[in-house]
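The records we work with from here on pair a chain with its fold. Here is one such record, which you should read through line by line:
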Amino acid sequence: MPVYRINEIGRNVLITVDEVIIKAAIDDDQDPKYIRNSIEVAEERYIVPVLGEAFYEDFIEAKNKVVTAGNKSDLLVLINASRAAAGKNAIEESELVIGTVVNAIEFTSEVYQEFWNRFLWKVTAEAVDIVGIVPTWLRTTGLGQQLNSPQVLGGTTEGSASGGRRDVQYKADAMAQNRLNPMIERMKKWLCDKMAWYPLFDTCNCSKYTGISNRKGGIILGIYDDDDVKETYVPVLPGKAAPRTQECVIKVVIAAVPDESKEYMLCNLQTIPKEYPEGNTLTIPQLANKYISWPIFIDNEVCMDMDFDLATGTFDNTDNGGFQAGTKVTIKYIETL
């Protein structure tokens, strides 16, 4: 199920609050503030050391898209369709401000999507849950440190019962040792076996196999200690995954004075200018080295034999009077996703 959500963190990150709630073992009514405040710490603590700086930065850059005047309406449709599928209310257009960041795995390549759905989504959600254990148990207030569900004089009630320090410590240790660490190790081996798919992955992680720690105690310090290297691991080098192709459509307008603020969203969710200047030629750089599915259409006119420069993505319509202002050009092409 697509999860298009507004990124409320203030920087590019892998996961959103709703994605954490979907994958982590937490209640659906968890206070989103604690999840939001744990995402950055969890990713920097657990995910970056495994993926490496370059891989992590490329992934978060691909998974987050800035809202512009050109893509705002398309992104609003995607967000509300995703929210409707999850049983959530639609957001208003006024809530999707230009400059806002939208987060979705669908913005990324097919191999990134496979990695996310197979491992990274679950691992990141579990990491966020672990980092959020202490803040959700003992919160900082104007009166100092207070339990989220405080005990009451004379005992506890069902509504106010709160786990003690030992309970919280046990949960943090057990989740790190029995859930998160084994998943991380399995994820690392999977990445090492498929390192050809992910050229930015830090393959230094493939030269060793980090064993699961048997540490006990230290709910704050314990989960931040490094594991010991237990044994070596020899990676397997498979062939690269075959790319997926799709027939896509570009619809642009020829204008005497193109409006640079208007954009058109491609099927790979990248955006290009919506309007192009009139003249004998039409250059769309995104079509360079792309296979064109002829014919193309200028308004309702079918064009089968127009010169096309594959290297630059340039159509030459000189023989037919060029591209005139006010006309619409429709082009089908094959995109590699």
